[in-house]
Structure formats: C-alpha cells, structure tokens
Amino acid sequence: MTSKGPEEEHPSVTLFRQYLRIRTVQPKPDYGAAVAFLEERARQLGLSCQKVEECWSHDPFEAFKDSEGYIYARGAQDMKCISIQYLEAVRMLKMEGHQFPRTIHMTFVPDEEVGGHQGMELFVQRPEFQALRAGFALDEGLANPTDAFTVFYSERSPWWVRVTSTGKPGHGSRFIEDTAAEKLHKVVSSILAFREKEWQRLQSNPHLKEGAVTSVNLTKLEGGVAYNVVPATMSASFDFRVAPDVDLKAFEEQLQSWCQAAGEGVTFEFGQKWMQPQVTPTDDSNPWWAAFSRACKDMNLTLEPEILPAATDSRYLRAVGVPALGFSPMNRTPVLLHDHDERLHEAVFLRGVDIYTRLLPALASVPALPSES
To answer: Is 112 a known active-site residue?
Structure first.
C-alpha cells in the first residue's frame, strides 16, 4: 500500500496525528489538553462522557468555578489570591486618584514553598530591597472557618534535625548489644515523649493556639541493608517547629542531652535551623498594628491574632527589622492550603479586594516614625 498525500489523508489518520501532537509525556504531561480532545470527540459522536479524577473534583490548574461560585485551583488560597487582591486594590486606588504619604511596593518573590532560600532570604540582603526603605510588610496568612479573620504576628522556627546513631553490627540471629537501632530508639522515644507533652499542653489550655507550642514529627527513618544484618548506622529525621518564646540555645542543649542519654556514637545535624524568631507587637505601642487594627475595626472585621504554626517569608522580613503581619482576608472558609480541592468562593475573594482598598490607605498614611528619620 502507498501512503496518500496530505490533501487526501484519511480522517482517522488525521485524528490520530492530532492526538499524538498533545504532549502527554512525563514529567510535565498536558493531561488537560488530552482530556479536552477526548471530551470533544465524545461530544461530536453524541456519546456521554464521565471524567473521574482522584482527590480533586476538577483539574487543579483549570480554575473551575462551580454553580455556587467556588473556584477550585491549586493556589486559590495559598496564595495567588492575595497577589491578585493586592494588584486589584492598587488598581482601584490609582483609578480613584489616591496618593499617600508613603509608597506602596508589591513584591512577588519565588521559592517560599521550599524555604525561600533562593527568594526572600536573598532578596532582603539585596541593595534593591534596602532601597525600598520598607517600614512595614503584609504577607500571607490562613483562611478562618468562622466569621473572624486570622492575623499572624509571629511564627514558629523550623528546625530540621537528623539524628545519626552508630553501634555494633552483626548477624541478625544474635543478641548484639549497643546496636545503632537500640540507641536510635531511645532518642526517638525521648523526642516523641516531648511531642506528647507539648500536645497535652495545647489540649489542656483552651487559650493556647497551635503556634504557641512546639511541634515535632518523625518524618524519615534510614538504615539497614538486609533482614539478617544488624546495621552499624541508622538515622531518624525530625521536623521541629519551635515556638517563638522558646530559649533556642537551651533547646539545642536539650537535643544534645537526648542524644547523650541514648549512648555513645549518637549525634545530630541540622537540615534547617532558624535562629531569629521575631514578634511584631499587637498593641498600640506599634503604630503599624494601630493602623491595621483600626482599619479592620472600621470595617467591622473581628481579628484573631495568632502565631503562625508553619513558616512564611515574613520571618526574613522581621529578621532584618521590618515588622510584618500575615493576613489573608478569607473568613467563613475552610483551611485548604496544600489540600485536595483547594478552593475559594468568589465573593470571599472580591471582599478581600475591598478590604485591601481600605487597609492599604491606612497603612500608607502612617506618619513618619522617629526610627525613620
């Protein structure tokens, strides 16, 4: 058989080639285009079509809006929402001809989700940042399922700790003493006992929020080569989030004592160790808080000041002397950052724009402070 020219190609071959042009290879497959192609074929053939997706009700990058007004997308809450709310609020303020004593700068910085080490951590040291002469910063917060709005004035310090235990190796059939696993078990038990103590402290005090206590999770176990070989080395990795009122030097000494109590040859190292926890005051001694809270009061917004349980770029700003508040204007909204079906109602999003059109003028009108002279 001979192939036909393009002008007389069989329609089935043309269709086949169209499908082949869709880039569905890993690691960045364009599944959305493939699904759209197949759905269109079903429509043309008069066939019913059902799309079944694990975890997400809709493609997380489709920004699907349902009949109730909920927008489903990765980033709907964390944190593309406030990026657009900032831009839209500034657009409205400019359109209305507003001018303020202070300059409003908007920064869009990468890598926050992986620690900000190639983003805000470097940017705050740059001459371009220093030239901004920033007096105050707003950053991301979290949704609040109640009528209130959460505002974060500090956050816990991320400490990633890897404990390595060395001991006597040997055959798995023998009662070997002083093994790496035996000693590592002691450290793990000590740290998880501390975790339980902090958890009970949180549970027993209704006035404490999660960010006010230190959390820790065992996130990784490594070691061993075979079922019947006792390994010479094993390690355990932990994700600590240390509360801002903790004496960090004393806490590191506590880690050292847990390792020493387990026996010889037990050491620890840091994968991440934040040592500059700062608190932005939430009383009228802080003119930025006074302006922020007064504007919120004028809008009848109920504020719930808290310590953020996780970590954001705010820590780098506070560390260089810039007071910062973490605030995402999302109330009556379940906390769904990093979760399946992350979504935000369009009415909540639009109200957030309105809130920023009131907040930004209040903050940009704070009189010059003695420290800025």
So the answer is: yes
